[in-house]
Amino acid sequence: MKPYERLLAFVHEIRRHFLLLGVLIIGGTIGFYTISPHLFEIIQNHLDQPLVFYTVAEPFLAHVQLALSVNLLVLVPILAIILWRSLAKPFQLSFKSQLNFTIFTCFLFYCGASFCYYITLPYGVDFLLSFGSEQLKPVISVSKFVTFVTVFVLAFGLIFELPICMVFLAKTGVASRQSFEKGRRYALLVISIVAALLTPTPDIVNMLLMGGPLYLLYEFGIIILKILKI
User: Pick from 176, 159, 170, 166: which is nearest to 212 by CA?
Assistant: First the structure.
């Protein structure tokens, strides 16, 4: 099967799940919206930040955004199942491969999201607010705060999927283990750029908090390929 045929087959397979995805996303968001005040309280206590709003609709939209983001976090296992089931036919993945890919996709995503929430975000927020003074008092908008937190947590979760992507590319013949080994210097460059763009603060420590684990995940992916003899 040619690459574009595989892509078309994948799109066809995943389109079959659009209705289910729509129901889960909308229904779950409505459900989490009902407890969003408690979710706000948890995040505020964790990051210790008072929040304000500037427009009439801002609190409502912030609650919706938080509910949607939490819902996506909860739906990761279902999204992973749908993704790998849709990729199975065009890329000829066995049931065992689908199961393994799904399990490790969820595991790595939650590792990345947790790492961001418990380590990177608190440090980043403290660093940014350290520039405040008697003349510069922090007044944080609730919508900006929710966007800041949810975008980085979800982004870290996705970035931590690097080993899974490497194994998939090698297993399907798109890339080889040798190409990953030879491309270490380029991987390090790309990881440095991604870390600089996605970390909440521009300081070197916070960049290392993302770039370091990412490069270790890259090496981990190579080790996994060696173990699997791909």
Answer: 159
